[in-house]
Amino acid sequence: MVSFADQLTVPTLMLDERRCRRNIERMAQKAQRSGVRFRPHFKTHQSAAVGAWFREVGVEAITASSLRMAEYFADDGWRDITVAFPVNIREIERINQLAARITLGLIVDSVESAELIAARLTHSVNVWIEVDTGDQRSGVDWNDGAVAVQIAHTLRASPLITLSGLLTHAGRSYTKRSPEDMRAVYGETVARLTALRGVLSAAGYSSLALSLGDTPCCSLVDDFSAADEIRPGNFVYYDLTQAVIGSCAMNDIAVAVACPVVSKNAERGQVVVYGGAVHLSKDTVVDGDGRTIYGLVSRLTLDDPGAGWGAPLANTYVRSLSQEHGVLQTDTATLASLKVGDVLAILPVHSCLTADLLKQCLTLGGETLPMLHLDHV
Ligand code: PLP
Q: Containing H/E element for 12?
């Protein structure tokens, strides 16, 4: 059998199963304590194997970000999936095929989309009105009750549509840097959704559920009882962004990219690894020292693979990325301790994108876990 170390020849996503399961259990328990449905977003891991760990803690309903992803998980036996991306009418055939075999949730944020699906659905679906609670991405403005009511009226015209409720993603939590500020985003989000639900209720749409959940808020809030379901995704692996903004600890991060050292430049205090933008993504974060970084760097224990990676090295960070190169800035002692052919662990800035780019992951036990792959069209 090929050893763990021998498998690390090219940039490889490594998964610390123990940390990942701990992240899953913690969030599942929080949802349970609040009495809300836990509908985790599976776009971060995109893996049937990791999905199975959610089943073990009782999760039955999930979120996906594309129909393709929803189909992959439906093929794996998931029977209740919300595609939390504005409905793409050009995929209506696919929507109908999937709706024929699972409980499918869709989101709409305009009368136009509502009319199109109402006219073209052939199977029953649950529909959520997506609400913009302050992020200016997609969604009906939380203050625009008139449009929300019009959408609800349009959806009611179809016997195949059940209006489930209001759904939002409070992505602005990512701009906050303190637990108090993140909790304030959560409180504001709940208040805005509740206000809009009141308008719909007055128009005759009662018992609408509220669905929300981003990793920062879900990590820092303990009581979700004002909502009906939570949909965080990133928490399954966490990443440097979450650690920097304070929604997880460094040792909650469950993935790192193994990157071979290929070159050193003592004069510049730089080390080049095989691991670039096509492996890590070009996302950056400003760390506590005000540096814009593409990742942090840890040592890997290769003779005891289960040990994984250690705390990030001091004075060392990923300073730039090109397609395949990662340039690390470091100090003299660290540089001297590294050899070409060593393997370093890079903690990713945004684990969702990194996992998506790498397409498979290797557990510290040496098992390759399947992920949604390009051959699943
Ligand atoms: N729901 C929706 C609609 C999203 O867009 C996302 C992430 O982009 C999530 C849930 C999960 O949020 P997070 O990645 O913060 O866990």
A: strand 12-15
Strand partners, 13: 257, 361
Q: For residue 163, how far is the Cα from the chain centroid?
A: 25
- Across the chain, mean pLDDT equals 96
Q: Look at residue 50 in the predicted model and tell me its pLDDT.
A: 98
**What is the number of the ligand 1 atom nearest to the C-alpha of 168?**
3
DSSP string, 191-234: HHHHHHHHHHHHTT--S-EEEE--HHHHHH----TTSSEE---G
Alpha carbons 110 and 95: distance in angstroms, whole number:
18
Give CA–CA dist 363/361, Å, rounded: 7
Closest protein CA for atom 5 of ligand 1:
169
More confident residue, 282 or 288: 282
Residues whose CB falls within 8 Å of the CB of residue 316, separated by 6 or more in sequence, listed in order = 296, 297, 328, 329, 330, 331, 334
How far apart (Å, rounded) are the C-alpha atoms in residues 106 and 83? 5
Give, as one character, the DSSP assignment of residue 370. P
Query: Which atom of ligand 1 lies nearest, measured to the CA of 213?
Result: 10
Find the helix or strand (DSSP H, E) in which 151 lies: helix 145-156
3-state helix, strand, coil in the chain (%, to 5): 35, 25, 40
| pLDDT of res. 305 | 74
Q: What type of residue sits at position 332?
A: T
Nearest Cα neighbor of 185 from 209, 210, 218 is 218
